[in-house]
């Protein structure tokens, strides 16, 4: 695909993703409610859609990315300096890893002038990124711990360290301290890294995670250099590991010291570099997006940073071309192969067609004495083949073979001398600076006699090879300027053709994933109408809710009644106690017999002399009771009065119950009174039948209990009308004259009382008090039993009535009676609600068309 076609295709992909995002933005302004009827899958689907659409826009807008990775000490950072024309524009260190992913954004300068670094931007990991990085590091720690046979108890603790929502820094540190006891270089290197990462996050996490800081070149050079790791890590105790860093003095702008203290949390460093056209002509790439060079930390060896590997793999997902730099000083190493395997395992595909191989520090290739003699001998030959040269020079053969194993085409292999490339660039103009003053002395190394002589031999050897030979081109480019110009051209070719093609393919995969999410949303939305709530009549809703509340109220009323074994009056006193008190009052204070007896008592003895009156017509019968029959008539009358009294008090208690029930249903009565019109009985019977009228009537009874069924309870409980009289004969506690007894009980003070033996003096007053108590107790016992019987009848009547009402109310709530309820409420059938705006907008997203392919 041509560059202009690729750019157009990416533009279409971008518009597609942006259209989805714009629609989702409209949905976010009026989002789906968190109601039960809205499936939770809708929220999940929109989130996935947004992520997929953002991914499409991000890729379609992204420059081609070239990832630069290399073996340790292969001169990777120096190579970047050579490519951009300034040796130490980026932090350079002999430490075997740069420690951070560095993104170099190239900007073309028109005139020949020194390369400029306009700014550095340091981006820190987000909290989510920290958790993902820790999971990666802990998983690797678990594997290394298993390999060295860490005790099972310690291995089991690792599972609890994986962060989900929170990071347990203290738990990680405790586990690392225990695992430190194992003497393993690989494990300890990672444990040291874990300890430093956890301590740094615990101090700086809340302040800087997710933030980006602009810094100047000086601060970058001082703050972004990786500290040298300890060489004797197996001799260190855990307490000798780096302590927690200090907090920044100011969060507004980090110093070099602040950068070093928070180094572990840095996600990426972005650098904008202005490159002269005479150094690296990028004009041919105009219209095909810019490209970014991504410098990755050294990977692949046992002591390489696991954090570095995580950050690198994360960034490499979006890389289209990979520049793998081998270390020419140590040809045949397996590190580069490990890196390639790691990348392919992560991406799940063969990456060799996307790899350019540079052999760094080729000027330091370790030629043995035999190799040097072979090289000299080859130079004496008139013409040579590539096969012959490689057969004679084993070290060169090993170097080319190692490089060939990493890529599909030999033209993608470049032999490099980073310093010589800078030296040749400096020769172009005295006005051009290619390094800082501190670095100038390094530029003299390529012109030392030994290196000059060897480079000349490589040039001569290239001229003796066929021009079509790849080795001819590789050695010729190396001898010309250390292979730097050839590498620049190769990178441009990959950007214009392979890189853009790969970017389009990567974006297309993201587009297909987005299209899949559109279809998933479409399938979800097809079922949504079934969930949309219906528009319901407010009267119908009020009726149903009121009936439901009535059922609850009546059930509670029944429960309270069942818990109450006796009836109580409005003063919360038991009816039986009220009756007993009234009985005692009547017998004690209303019976004249006791007054007569107490008036005739002198010194404890009752005197039977009759009172006389001068006027005969004023004489009264003040004869005192001397036998049991003298109390009978008063007893009978009292029982009759108390029976009526018991009825009245029980009826009063029933009335109070209805008053309470009526109060309990007052709210429902107020809601339903305007709805439950009496004249609806006839229309209900005509439309639904007689049985449905019963349901309606019981609904009326439920809201007006006092008016509609209070009297029925009183009648069914035996409280209304003439009650069956209580048989006083059976209740009278004293013996009476009857068919079986010639005489009733004769009291001791009666003149008719006959004693076989003259009795001792006896206190008649005590006998009278006992007699009164006996009569009261006997009558009270039976009256309490009578009240209890009345209470039982009341509760039985209530239970029957309440059950019938509750059953009928529940019956009304069944779906089969919905037409009856709607008729009562004068409500029409339910109708579907209009489609909500969020659903209307969401429904348009699946219709967004897939971009056409060019």
TrEMBL record:
> Can you give the residue ranges of the Dynamin N-terminal domain?
66-118
Instruction: Note whether Coiled coil occurs among the keywords.
Output: yes
Q: Which domain of life is it from?
A: Bacteria
| Record-linked Pfam families | Dynamin_N
Keyword annotations from UniProtKB, A to Z: Coiled coil
Q: Does the keyword Coiled coil apply?
A: yes
Residues folding into a coiled coil are 500-527
For this entry, the protein name equals Dynamin family protein
According to its UniProt entry, this protein's organism is Scytonema hofmannii PCC 7110
């Amino acid at each position: 695909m041509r560059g202009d076609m690729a750019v157009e295709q990416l533009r279409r992909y971008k518009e597609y993703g942006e259209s989805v995002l714009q629609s989702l933005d409209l949905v976010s302004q009026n989002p789906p409610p968190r109601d039960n009827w809205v499936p939770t899958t809708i929220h999940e689907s929109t989130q996935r859609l947004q992520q997929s659409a953002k991914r499409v826009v991000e890729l379609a807008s992204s420059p081609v990315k070239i990832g630069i990775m290399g073996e340790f000490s292969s001169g990777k950072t120096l190579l970047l300096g050579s490519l951009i024309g300034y040796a130490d524009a980026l932090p350079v260190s002999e430490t075997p890893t740069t420690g951070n992913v560095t993104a170099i954004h190239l900007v073309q300068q028109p005139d020949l002038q020194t390369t400029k670094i306009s700014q550095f931007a340091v981006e820190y990991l987000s909290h989510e990124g920290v958790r993902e990085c820790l999971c990666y590091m802990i998983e690797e720690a678990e594997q290394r711990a298993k390999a060295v046979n860490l005790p099972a108890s310690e291995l089991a603790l690792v599972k609890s360290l994986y962060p989900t929502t929170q990071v347990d820094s203290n738990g990680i540190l405790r586990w690392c301290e225990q695992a430190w006891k194992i003497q393993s270089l690989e494990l300890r290197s990672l444990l040291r890294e874990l300890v430093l990462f956890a301590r740094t996050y615990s101090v700086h996490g809340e302040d800087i995670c997710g933030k980006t800081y602009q810094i100047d070149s000086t601060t970058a050079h001082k703050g972004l250099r990786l500290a040298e790791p300890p060489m004797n890590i197996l001799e260190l105790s855990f307490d000798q590991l780096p302590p927690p860093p200090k907090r920044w003095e100011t969060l507004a702008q980090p110093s070099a010291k602040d950068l070093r203290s928070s180094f572990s949390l840095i996600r990426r460093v972005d650098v904008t570099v202005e490159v002269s056209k005479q150094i690296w002509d990028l004009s041919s790439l105009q219209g095909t997006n810019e490209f970014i060079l991504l410098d990755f930390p050294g990977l692949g060896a046992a002591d390489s940073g696991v954090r570095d590997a995580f950050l690198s793999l994360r960034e490499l997902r979006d890389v289209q071309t990979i520049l793998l730099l081998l270390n020419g000083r140590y040809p045949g190493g397996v590190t580069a192969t490990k890196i390639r395997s790691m990348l392919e395992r992560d991406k799940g595909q063969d990456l060799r067609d996307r790899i350019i191989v540079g052999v760094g520090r080729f000027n330091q290739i370790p030629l043995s004495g035999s190799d040097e003699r072979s090289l000299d001998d080859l130079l004496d030959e008139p013409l040579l083949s590539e096969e012959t040269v490689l057969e004679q020079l084993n070290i060169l053969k090993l170097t080319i073979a190692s490089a060939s194993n990493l890529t599909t085409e030999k033209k993608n292999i470049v032999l490099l001398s980073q310093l010589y490339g800078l030296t040749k660039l400096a020769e172009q103009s005295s006005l051009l600076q290619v390094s800082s003053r501190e670095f100038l002395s390094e530029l003299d190394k390529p012109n030392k006699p030994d290196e000059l002589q060897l480079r000349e031999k490589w040039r001569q050897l290239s001229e003796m090879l066929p021009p079509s030979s790849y080795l001819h081109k590789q050695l010729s480019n190396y001898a010309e300027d250390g292979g730097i110009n050839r590498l620049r051209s190769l990178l441009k070719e990959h950007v214009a053709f392979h890189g853009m093609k790969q970017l389009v393919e990567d974006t297309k995969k993201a587009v297909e994933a987005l299209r899949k999410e559109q279809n998933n949303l479409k399938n979800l939305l097809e079922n949504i109408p079934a969930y949309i709530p219906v528009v319901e009549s407010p009267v119908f809703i009020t009726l149903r809710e009121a009936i439901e509340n009535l059922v609850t109220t009546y059930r509670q009323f029944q429960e309270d009644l069942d818990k109450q074994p006796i009836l109580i009056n409005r003063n919360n006193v038991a009816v039986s106690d009220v009756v007993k008190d009234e009985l005692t009052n009547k017998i004690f204070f209303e019976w004249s017999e006791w007054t007569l007896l107490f008036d005739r008592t002198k010194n404890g003895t009752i005197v039977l002399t009759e009172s006389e009156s001068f006027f005969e017509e004023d004489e009264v019968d003040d004869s005192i009771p001397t036998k049991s029959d003298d109390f009978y008539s008063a007893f009978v009358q009292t029982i009759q009065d108390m029976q009526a009294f018991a009825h009245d008090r029980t009826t009063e208690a029933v009335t109070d119950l209805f008053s309470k029930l009526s109060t309990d249903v007052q709210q429902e009565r107020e809601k339903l009174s305007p709805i439950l019109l009496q004249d609806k009985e006839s229309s209900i019977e005509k439309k639904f039948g007689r049985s449905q009228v019963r349901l309606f009537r019981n609904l009326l009874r439920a809201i007006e209990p006092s008016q509609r069924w209070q009297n029925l309870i009183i009648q069914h409980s035996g409280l209304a009308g003439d009650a069956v009289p209580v048989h006083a004969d059976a209740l009278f506690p004293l013996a009476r004259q009857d068919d079986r007894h010639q005489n009733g009980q004769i009291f001791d003070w009666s003149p008719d009382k006959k004693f076989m033996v003259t009795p001792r003096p006896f206190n008649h007053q005590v006998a009278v008090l006992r007699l009164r108590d006996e009569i009261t107790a006997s009558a009270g016992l039976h009256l309490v039993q009578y009240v209890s019987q009345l209470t039982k009848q009341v509760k039985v009547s209530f239970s029957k009535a309440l059950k019938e009402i509750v059953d009928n109310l529940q019956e009304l709530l069944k779906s089969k009676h919905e037409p009856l309820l709607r008729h009562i409420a004068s409500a029409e059938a339910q109708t579907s609600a209009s489609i909500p705006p969020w659903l209307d907008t969401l429904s348009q997203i699946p219709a967004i068309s897939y971009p056409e392919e060019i």
